[in-house]
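seq:
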Amino acid sequence: MNAPLKSDSKSLLDVLNHRYPKRRPIWFMRQAGRYLPEYRALREKAGSFLDLCYAPELAAEVTLQPLQRFDLDAAILFADILLVPQKMGLELEFVQNEGPKIELVRSREDVVRLDSVGAAGKLEAIYETVKVVRRQLASDVGLIGFCGAPWTVASYLIEGGSSTDRSLARQAAYEAEWFGLLIDKLVEVSTAYLVEQVKAGVEVVQIFDSWAGDLPASLRRQWCDEPVRRIVSGLHDAGCDVPVIGFARGVGAGQVEFAEHTGVAAIGLESSIDAKWAVQAIGANVVLQGNIDPVAVIVGGPRLEAEVNGLLDAVPVERHIVNLGHGMRPETPLGHVADLIDLVRARDAVDFVDV
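struct:
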């Protein structure tokens, strides 16, 4: 057993940089959100979801809320993936109990009018949130920035918001001559957006391709893997050598090609993937993040304990970031989240020995 690093080291960064951590890092997608009563109170105070996103002091408070309640190893910036297309010139609103509604993009003319040059510069409030969080964050806690992957963001623009199966977006991916131009613009703005987040202080970025599994394998490399690779490359070209976590939800065995092609430091595994298979199938230089079922956290008790212990048995400490297979659900009991963390920390007490 390797010795743990000094107490103020960041376990998240240690794992992502292939150093042995002091403990197994934990963070959760949507760890700041509606399951927290303090979030709901602040959301009401802000007036609207977008007002909350664009108020740096309030957005920083939301970002930090889960760390004030739980023993986590990272904060993730509070924002939304659709802020990028909004600043590209599209009308956006969040409707109560319905979700986002965004201006449609369904033609070359619609794509051409999108601002891919100045959009990232219009997101100063988000970069200020990063700075506020960094000033308040403990020295051993990492800060994660993020953006939506081009395919996932494009699907929202073509559908006009949420959709059950992204049918219109999938049709565009097959046949629309303007679809490639839309992806190019989203790659350009997303890269610039992440660069500015890094300059402001984020130490890791995650690219969310939540709808990657909607595309068949014949289109996935072109419209999912390749755009993410270009963003990763663009970050490095800009001198931002931060680890990138890729979350291509729903691609199953396609995670192998996703990891190889994109060059991400880590991949987020959806809950349906067998972690033992992933350890063997995915290159040993790629960190695995996940993949506890969010529903198991709602259920809690012995089933949650079995899920957590099975995952910890499957994935080596030095290659693992504990997370969910998707985001924390609003109905999740707070006590079950604490139980999950306690289970991991109990294993830390066995797996990590001071020498």
